[in-house]
Design brief:
The protein is α/β, with parallel strands linked by helices. It has 2 domains: 156 residues, Rossmann fold (3-Layer(aba) Sandwich), CATH 3.40.50; 92 residues, ProC C-terminal domain-like (ProC C-terminal domain-like fold, Orthogonal Bundle). It is built from 10 helices and 8 strands. It has an 8-stranded mixed β-sheet. The radius of gyration is 22 Å and the shape is elongated.
Length: 265
C-alpha cells in the first residue's frame, strides 16, 4: 500500500509515525511531500529519496494521498498536484472546510473527508469521516483501518456532519484544556502550588473519563453520584447553572460549527 502524505506539519507527521508504528505500511512505501525542509529525525525511517519538496511523477504511484496542509493552502496546492493524480487514487483530506466537491477537481472521484483531533499524536485521537460513493466497501475498510492507527473513528454518510465533528471533537481538546486551566488557576489561588494544582486537575480529569468509560451510567447519573444534597458539589453546580454555563458551551460549539461552514465556502 503506497501512501503519499502531503504536508509534514503536526498531523502529517502524526500519520507518518502511526502508519509505520502499526505496520499499516512499510517505510519503502511511504512518501512525504512538503515545500519546507524536513529536519524531524522521527521521519528518518523513511528513505531520504522518498521525501520531496516539489510535486513530481511519484505522486501518480501512490494508492492513497493524504492531504494534511492548511485549508488556505489547498487552492494553490491543487494546481501543482492535479496533473499527477489519476482516477484510481484515493484522496484522504484532513483539511477543515474543504468540501468533497472541491476535492473532486483533483481528477479522481474517490474522496474521503476526515476530521481528526490532536490526541491522534499519541494514538488516542477521535476521527469522524465520510466518503464519496466512488469508494467500494474494501476501500472504505482500508481507509477506516488507516484512520484507526491514530485512535478511533466514526463513519458518517452526511458530509455536513464533518463540520459538526470539527466543532465537537476536532476543537474539543481545546475546550477541555480551557476548563482545566480555569481549575488549575483557581486551585493556585486557593493555596496549592502549580505542580500540586496540575496534578490534582489532571488526575481528576483522567479518573473521571476512565470511570465513565468503564460503566454504563450517563453523565447526568454520574453527577448525581458526586453531588450530594446540600454539599459542596451542588453549591458549585448551582453557580454554573445560574451563570448559564451549559448555554454558553452550546453557543460556543455553534459558533465553531458556523466557522467551519464558512471555511468551506
Amino acid at each position: 500500500m503506497r501512501i503519499l502524505i502531503i504536508g509534514a506539519g503536526n498531523m502529517g507527521k502524526t500519520y507518518a509515525k502511526s502508519l509505520l508504528a502499526s505496520y499499516f505500511t512499510q517505510p519503502k512505501e511511504l512518501y512525504i511531500l512538503d515545500k519546507n525542509p524536513i529536519i524531524d529525525t522521527s521521519l528518518l525511517e523513511i528513505p531520504e529519496h522518498q521525501i520531496f519538496r516539489e510535486p513530481n511523477q511519484k505522486i501518480s504511484e501512490a494508492d492513497i494521498i493524504i492531504l494534511a496542509v492548511k485549508p488556505q493552502d489547498f487552492e494553490e496546492l491543487s494546481k501543482t498536484i492535479k496533473p499527477f493524480i489519476h482516477s484510481q487514487q484515493i484522496i484522504l483530506s484532513i483539511m477543515a472546510g474543504i468540501t468533497a466537491k472541491a476535492l473532486s477537481n483533483l481528477n479522481t472521484d474517490k474522496i474521503v473527508r476526515a476530521m481528526p483531533n490532536l490526541p491522534a499524536q499519541i494514538g488516542m485521537g477521535m476521527t469522524v469521516f465520510t466518503c464519496t460513493s466512488a469508494l467500494d466497501k474494501k476501500e472504505l475498510f482500508i481507509i477506516q483501518n488507516l484512520l484507526n492507527t491514530t485512535g478511533k473513528s466514526v463513519y458518517v454518510e452526511d458530509e455536513a456532519m464533518i463540520d459538526a465533528a470539527t466543532a465537537i471533537s476536532g476543537s474539543g481538546p481545546a475546550y477541555v484544556y480551557y476548563f482545566m486551566e480555569a481549575m488549575i488557576n483557581t486551585a493556585i489561588e486557593m493555596g496549592f502550588s502549580r505542580a500540586e494544582a496540575e496534578l490534582m486537575v489532571n488526575q481528576t480529569f483522567m479518573g473521571a473519563v476512565h470511570l465513565h468509560n468503564q460503566n454504563k451510567l450517563t453523565c447526568t447519573e454520574w453527577i448525581s453520584r458526586v453531588a450530594s444534597k446540600g454539599g459542596t458539589t451542588e453549591a458549585a453546580l448551582k453557580v454554573f447553572s445560574s451563570n448559564h454555563l451549559q448555554s454558553s458551551i452550546k453557543d460556543g460549539l455553534e459558533s465553531a460549527l458556523n466557522r467551519a461552514r464558512e471555511l468551506g465556502k
